Every structure is written in structure tokens, then in C-alpha cells.
Amino acid sequence: MDVYTRTGRLKLYLAILGIFFLIIPLFYANYLAQNLAIREKTHVEILVKTLQFISNNSNNDDDLTYQSEILEKLNDSRVVTINQSDEIQLHNYSEPADTAAILARVKRSNITPLTSPDYKAIYFEYPKILTLISYFPLLQLLLLLFYITIAYAVFNLSRKEEQNRVWVGMAKETAHQLGTPISGIMGWLDNLRESGISDDEQREIMNHMEMDITKLQQVSDRFSKIGSIPELQKKSLPEELQRSLIYMKARASSKIDFKLIFNEDQFYFAMINSNLFSWVIENVIRNALDAMDGQGFITIRLFSIHNVNHIEIEDNGKGIPSSKFNTIFRPGYSTKSRGWGLGLSLAKRIIENYHNGKIYVKSSVEGEGTTITIQLPTV
Predict the structure, then answer these.
(1) Where are the beta strands (DSSP E) in 179-325?
(2) Residues 110 and 153 occupy one common structural domain
(3) Is residue 335 part of a domain?
(4) CB-CB contact of 377 with 311 (8 Å)
(5) 225 in a domain, yes or no?
(6) Using an 8 Å Cβ cutoff, are 197 and 206 in contact?
(7) 8, 181, 215, 309: least CB-packed within 10 angstroms?
(8) How far apart are CA 339 and CA 176, in angstroms?
(9) Which of 149, 183, 218 is the last residue of a domain?
């Protein structure tokens, strides 16, 4: 199953889940409205009987306090009774008894009137609170659709922005990766053009040029492996680390002290792709060099705990704020004005997706330095 199929299915599942969470409140709000409507009809029946009792006993000396209290408590309900002659007989509207206006008003509500042996029809209006509740599901749906629309637009914008950062970063990373060996080759060519160099010096220059050309081939191979499943082989980590250190040391300031520390009596093997692994190490070291002012130290410590190889790369550069420990691995993030912001993002992808390992900032103090840890399973 490819990534697009998985993404499509994930979106489908999320859509189904969203619909499920939408339907539950809608049904619940509808359930409340129906129950309140049934309750309101009971109130209407009580109200009609109360109005009828008051109408029949208005000329008597009976105490109507209780009935008046009922009318007061049910003042949100409005009723109009129609007798067999289609005339309004009872109502509890406060406005003047304009029969035509009252009847038109209650009929506009489109509420099915109640029936009674004493009246042809009993028209009524629901209280405002019940009307608001009946409109609540629609309001909720509109708000949810508005939220989904905004969220989708923001998500799309964010995704496109990240894609743009990745493409721009990939282009700059390619140029940067190619720049180092190309600059080296041009420098060696300038040396060859100089007169008076010995045969031994020519051979040394040719060896360095061969190393840089090999590096160009490695860069091409690295980019070709991004997005595909690389072939992993059992390799000795000290040898791989030493090779990367030698390459980076030759291209760094002579005032930078490089060290590789590990227990020589112990074996450190891992399933890795040498080309991609060296890319990760070089990226981390290159970032360390960028954080230093041309002098200091870069120390790599290798040790194993509970069948996990730990590679700690420490420098005494500018350091990283703790709030940026995770951010530095995101595509497009860079503290340099001309930074590409993709090296550590690719390093994280290579270590975690291809090598089943971890890479993270173990510690960092601004102005003192940073330690980045890489973990790989032992074999």
C-alpha cells in the first residue's frame, strides 16, 4: 500500500469520525426538542383547563389565586381555543383581543393544533427557549462547517508552505552538498596550474581530486536514495565515524579539535547504509562547525547500552534554545540567513525512517555548546 492510499484512507476514517461526532449532538438536540415539545403540549392542556375554569368562575366569589399562579408560571406558553363556531373563545395574549390577528399569528407557526371535546381546535405557540433549542442543531452544523472550512484552508496553506520549504531546501541542500567537493576540485586544479610542483605533489593533488570526485558520486547516490528503501548492511560504527571525521576535518579550520572516543575492546555494529549514515554525521558536524567561530572542539562519543548504540556529537558552539530542540528537525527551519533548513530534517528521516533509530538534542546551553544523540540498534 503506497503513501497516497494510506493518506486517502486516513482522510476517509477521519471524515467518518467527524460525521459520527456531528450526528450525536444533532440527534441529542433533536431528542431534547421533541421531549420539550411533548412537555409543552401538557402545559398547554393545563393552561386551557385553567383558562376555562377562570372563565367559568369569573363572576363567582371563588378564590382563583391558585389558577392565577398557574397562569403566571406558564406565561411563556400562548394558547388560543376555537369553538365549534370557529370563534376564538379563550386566549392568554396580553394584547387586545383582535381575533383575526391572534388566529393568523398562531397559524403561522405551522404547529399542529390540539383537539378537545370542548373545542374545535387548540392553537398554541412554543416558548422562545424551545424555538431556540430547535434551531440549535442547525446553528451547530453551520458553525462546524465554518470551522471545518477554515481548518481545511489553514491545513492546505500550511501543507503547501511546507512543500515549498522542502523543495527550496532540497535545491539549496543539493547546491551545498555539491559545493564542497566542487570547490575542492577547483582548488586542486589551481595548484596543478602552478609551475614548479614536484611529481609527489602532483600525485597528492590527484589523490585529493579523486576523493572529491568520489564525494560527488556519493552526493548523487544519496539524493537518489531519498524516497526509496535503501539497502542496509552490517557495518562497524567506529570505522564509519572515523571516515566521516577525516573527511570533515580536512575541510574545517585547523583550530577545530576533532575527537572520536569509544571503547576499543568492544564491538559496535549496526545495520546501516554507509552513504546515508555518513551524510547524517557530516550534516550534524557541519551544523556544529557553523555554530563555532572557527575554533573549538567537536567530540564524538560512541557507547552501547541495552543493545542500543549511542553516538553523541558534542561541540562548544553557540548552543540551541531549549524551545527549539524539536524545531531544528523541521523542514525549512534555519538560524542562518542563507540557510537551507533541510539538513537535519533529512538526517532525522534517514535515521528514524530508514534505520529504525532516533536522533535528538540531548542537551544544549546557549553560549556553551550542544550535544546531539543518535541511537541505532546493535546487531
Answers:
(1) 233-236, 256-262, 269-272, 296-305, 308-315
(2) no
(3) yes
(4) no
(5) no
(6) no
(7) 8
(8) 10
(9) 218
Number of domains in the chain: 3
Please provide the distance, in angstroms rounded to a whole number, between the alpha carbons at the two ends of the chain: 29
Mean pLDDT split into 10-residue runs, the chain, 379 residues? 54 73 75 75 71 63 60 64 67 60 68 69 70 74 79 74 63 63 70 69 75 73 66 95 92 92 95 92 92 93 96 95 88 62 82 93 94 97
- CB-count exposure of residue 232 (10 Å: 0-12, 13-18, 19+): middle
pLDDT (0 to 100) of residue 373: 98
Sequence-separated (6 or more) residues with CB below 8 Å from residue 113: 82, 121, 122, 123, 124
Place of cell 572515523: 242
Would 243 be classed as within a structural domain? Answer: yes
pTM, rounded to two decimals: 0.52
Q: Quick check: is 56 in a domain?
A: yes
Per the CB < 8 A criterion, the answer to whether 282 and 300 are in contact is no
The per-residue pLDDT for 155 is 75
Q: Tell me, what CATH number does 276's domain have?
A: 3.30.565.10
The set of cell numbers assigned to 71 is: 397562569
Write out the three cell numbers for 338: 542563507
List the domain range (segments joined by +) for residue 186: 133-218
